[in-house]
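Entry:
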Amino acid sequence: MPRDVPLNSLGLPKAPADTRVVVAMSGGVDSSVVAAMLAEQGYDVVGVTLQLYDHGAALAKKGACCAGRDIHDARRVAETMGFPHYVLDYENTFREAVIEEFADAYLAGATPVPCIRCNERVKFKDLLNTARELDADCMATGHYIQRKMGPHGAELHCAADANRDQSYFLFSTTPDQLDYLRFPLGHLQSKAETRALAAKYGLPVADKPDSQDICFVPNGNYAAVIEKLRPGAADPGQIVDMDGRVLGDHRGVIHYTIGQRKGLGIGGLADPLYVVRLDPETRRVIVGPKDALSTRIVPVREVNWLGDAPLSSRPEWEVAVKVRSTRPPRPAIIRPLSDTEAEVELFTPEDGISAGQACVFYAPDSSRVLGGGWIWRGR
């Protein structure tokens, strides 16, 4: 890198006007602010929004990203700030890479996290490749996470605002992707700062509510989506205790998740019972006491490791881990079985850990994200 060329705000040795940035625009306030901020700084901004599923169904629904209304909002932001905006039809890709697996995972008794798969398989793969084809120098998103340069290259770090941190959903970002990605909001201290910037730029989405649902799951009704994709998926079965005694009937395994207590329809018992296991093959929902949910050993696979040395270069790694997006990192030890598979031992057992969720690794003494893997049932 030439020493006489100063780095711009995106860490590239170019003038902003000579730096093309593709901004992934969902139509929400976060990505809109990123696009507006970079445009104001003089970068050659190109906004791209993905059409991920049928507009007709989306237009009538609020509270989710990537819907028809959101595409319209992204276009309005681009018009306001004066940069080009394109809509790419990724509907088939999204269905094959995200929705189909989501349905199959639920049918297998797992609890999937489709937003991670969307980042991994669509936004940070296909869209990122499209950005390269557009001769962009980098791609920027509105995610709340930080990219910092370390002695061995780009590192992933938690957002400055712990309440907005999205590191759990971005653990599968690879080093090559991290070299190309930028996250301009990660250093902000609060969402209020983002909205203030949106107001400053006069963006039409400044007061738009945050998305809540998974974009293809209207009103959070997972079962309805799965029944539509997999007819017969809601076949009824039995609710049994851990000894196999039948306690009642259920209306389909897909209506239940590990750790669930309410809505079991088996009241009148002395002690509360929780869903501790799902058996799709026998169509049984197994329930038990709260202590049966406690887990210390967590098998993970498809590990994406972001440490400086290879995962398998040590027999153990002391880290902190999140086994759910809403829980804080807890001390743990990773014992690698290969470069992509490991066993995680939690210092303190956690309740309600489910196959299909992510286990994300963090450095115990800093904000650095060390990667993560997918929880499964083990051998």
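Residues 25 and 298 are 36 Å apart (CA to CA).
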